[in-house]
């Protein structure tokens, strides 16, 4: 009996694996006129993980909408910094950063949770919020942090909560009896997300790459627009860059970018249909 059970478990794993390994209907690079929803734990994560891809999607006349879970109000070593001031700095920097990628600030949704506190938020409410966004936006493609990445597995962090909460909301959005008030009171219909791409994947689970050779400069400039995220501004806040610090940071970011077959790429784990398992 045990061997039968083990065989069924193996079959389920193989079936799930097929769902993860499917090819997308249309490559991200070829999407035009579509709606793309990006969930990110903090302002800057989506740029580190998918900034070049976001720039490409915007360039191809897709509508990119960002949903940012936290206000990133604690990530400073400056003893004179306040949470309120940092949250406002990060908001303005994010708007400038995304503008360089082609995303207008009106397409940025702030859920407003305090930095480091996402895992302590009321879980049903958090899932309900993300579910409402999915049902309202009705994206053709959704991008989010990979829930299987090492950082999410081993650290109690906003990254982990954001990744798992988004996946839970993707599933809930399909079935109207999850948060039925959204249909009965808001007129939001159930919605099945067709395709998902997870950024920050583990190397062994990466199954999709986007070449960003001609967009690398835009990505790096977008990142450095978030001055407070980098040293020395992280240590003692200043609103601009010292030219020497900027030059070394630009070089460092370029060296950090993943390369594959002689190209700069952004890596993803593509998935579809797994949320039905």
CATH class: Alpha Beta
Strand tally is 8
**Count of individual helical segments:** 9
Q: Structural class per helix/strand content?
A: alpha/beta
What is the correct CATH architecture? 3-Layer(aba) Sandwich
In helices, the fraction of residues equals 40-55%
Sheet with the most strands, sense and barrel status: 8 strands, mixed
Which percent band covers the strand fraction? 15-25%
**CATH homologous superfamily assignment:** LmbE-like
Q: From the alpha-carbon coordinates, what is the Rg to the nearest angstrom?
A: 19 Å
Number of domains: 1
Low-pLDDT regions: 1-21
Shape: globular
Average per-residue pLDDT, rounded, comes to 90
Distance between the termini: 23 Å
Question: What's the structural blueprint in terms of helices and strands?
Answer:
Blueprint: H1 2-21, E1 35-40, H2 45-59, E2 63-70, H3 83-99, E3 108-113, H4 123-137, E4 141-145, H5 150-154, H6 158-174, H7 181-184, E5 195-199, E6 208-211, H8 216-224, H9 243-256, E7 259-260, E8 263-271
Parallel strand pairs: 1-2, 1-4, 2-3, 4-5
Antiparallel strand pairs: 5-8, 6-8, 7-8
Helix pairs in contact: 2-8, 3-8, 4-6, 8-9
Which descriptors would you attach to this protein?
277 residues; 8 strands; Rossmann fold; alpha/beta; 42% helix; globular
